[in-house]
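Posting this for the archive.
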Amino acid sequence: MNPTLAAIAHSKFRNAIGLVGIEIDSKQNKIRVRLAKQWSRDKLNIIPDEIGELYEKIKWGETYIDQQTGQHFIQSLKREEHMPLKIINTQKNLKDADEIERLKIMDKVEMAQFMLQLRQNHVIEFPERPSKDMSELEEQVALYMEHKTEAGTIDYYAPGEELDSLIKGLLIACFAARKLLSGGDGIPFMGPVRKKPLRSIGDYRLVLNKRGLSPRDI
C-alpha cells in the first residue's frame, strides 16, 4: 500500500484555507493527487470539524500544516480533532539545511522550483474526473508562476486576488514527499529546472481566458 500524506495551507490574503492529499508511488515514481478541498475563511469555525471528518473517513498518513495558518486554527485541529500535525514554517530564504532535512522549514522558492521539476518530468497525476475543488487546484497550479522582484530576486505567486491555498497545500505535500520519490538521497531522477510556468503556456492561457485575464495581468 502506497504512503499518503496531506497538507493544509492558507491563501496569500488569508481568505481561504486549502487541504490537499497525495499518494506517493515510489515504484512508478508518481505523485497522485487524491484530495483537494478549499474553504472560505469565514467558515473558520466549521473547518476543523470537516477536516477531522475527512481524516476519519480517509485515514491518510502524516498531516503537514503551515504555521502561518494561525495558532488558534492549529490548536483547534489538535484539541478537537485529535489530529497529529507536523507544523512547518514556509517563507523565502530559509536555508538551514538541518531544519529543511527534518521538514521543520520549507523555503517557498525551493518548493516552487521542486514543483517545476515534478511537472516537467510528469511525476504528478490528477484525477481524470476531478471534483470542483480539484479543478480549482489545477487552475491554481496553472496560475502560480515565477516573477522577478524589483530587487532582482525570484518569487512565485498567483496574480491579483487569485486564491492560492490549494497550490500551497500541494507544494508543501510534494516537498514533504520528495524523499519517498528518490529513495531518500536527494532527487537523482530529476533534470534541471527549465524557466517556464508550472504548466505549459497553453494551459495557463486557457485558465486566464476563463478567469477574464490576459497575459499582461500576470
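The first strand starts at residue 4 and ends at 10. Residues 183-202 have pLDDT under 50 and may be disordered.
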